[in-house]
């Protein structure tokens, strides 16, 4: 054998194991990438399913409109508030309880509305304060032994101040 043939054979002996190691490394990286994609997709799909679930339907409790005379500094008896609103509640149980004790609920609200000042209700801040007061007046239990009511929001459906 010539020196050239010996050099060629020696290079092949080193080249073949290096190529095998490189091939195995490339297959390992590719396998790891596929594994990550499969597990990452499963996690993403689970997150998408959670995101895709619609929020629970809101629970509303519509009340008949109220008409009350208002307090005003000039003692004008014609200052009247005509207001209608709907209560947003956290659950069906609260709605059922408010409906069962509707006369008590309406009485509390009428007493609250009749104490309002006409000039205060004429602006946005006064209306927001009224919403806060409605939530507070409805919060205590309607009868002893019952849980407190939670009103998450008060939505005006009619508001006429004259």
Automatic annotation (TrEMBL):
The gene is fliL. One of its GO terms (cellular component) is plasma membrane. It is a single-pass membrane protein. Belongs to the FliL family. This is Flagellar protein FliL. Controls the rotational direction of flagella during chemotaxis. InterPro entries: FliL (IPR005503). One of its GO terms (biological process) is chemotaxis. The keyword Endoplasmic reticulum does not apply.
